[in-house]
Amino acid sequence: MLYTLPKLAGIAFFVDQIAKEKIPFIVKVKVLTENGSGGVLVHPSRNIQDDEPVIVLEAFATDGSPFIPESNIPFTVPNCREYAKRCPTYFHTYTQAKFKHAEKEPCFYCKEIDINLQLYKKRIVKAIESPEKLFYALGVDFILKQQPQFLHIFENKEKYPLLSDLFQNSKPFIEEFGLDMNHPSAFSICHVYSDEGKSGKSKNFQLDMTREVFLKNLGLL
Fold it and tell me: Which residues have C-beta within 8 Å of that of residue 12, sequence separation ≥ 6?
């Protein structure tokens, strides 16, 4: 989302703009388990033309596994992202090559396994049927988990009535839609970017590309 402090303020602007401009979005969810990745689910907010501009939201979901394998790290989205830095295929990594695992030794992030994705699909559809509630709930969850220093703003109803009401009214949808980044049964957003309909609707997950592959796909390398 937008890099604003606090995050929910940027999301309020984001929601207003996509509503005014009628911009569609696509949610791509990678399902992660302690045994490996169950694949990527793609769900658009509506029918999207191939040449139409879209906003793509890449996300992680987990199967409820209590720990990342071979560690005592809780299987939360922030920790998934940190752990995935060991994987050579993970795009957002600045880890030195010597700290990454060998390609012949796949990790939970890049090892593909068979998994029933229908349950996750139902959860995704439920969430994106109410886009405003979806985005606001994600923003509230981010405040609670990543920006608690701004909680005082949303608890001050007298000084910030609109933001505090938005915060309180959106909080219940975190659990209802399965958006808690510490237990994302539907998904939790990790990466947002603009794209065109054709590539946006594909199962290609930008976070699964190395920088070299990403730049080559754009014709920049």
Answer: 136, 139, 163, 166
Contact yes or no for 212/221 (Cβ under 8 A): yes
How far from 211 is each of 82, 88, 166, CA to CA, in Å?
17, 10, 38
**What gap in Å lies between CA 2 and CA 6, rounded to an integer?**
10
What's the farthest any 2 CA atoms get from each other in the chain? 58
pLDDT tens digits for range 139-148: 999 999 999 9
Instruction: Say which residue, 209 or 128, is predicted with more confidence.
Output: 128
Classified as helix, coil or strand, 218 is coil
Q: What gap in Å lies between CA 154 and CA 9, rounded to an integer?
A: 11
- Helix (H) or strand (E) holding 198, with range, is helix 197-200
> What proportions of the chain, in percent to the nearest 5, are helix, strand and coil?
40, 20, 40
**Three-class SS of residue 37?**
strand
3-state SS class at 202: coil
Q: Distance between CA 62 and CA 88 in Å, rounded?
A: 21
Instruction: Give the pLDDT of residue 140.
Output: 95
pTM: 0.85
pLDDT digits (tens, 9 = 90+) for 198-217: 989 999 888 888 777 777 87
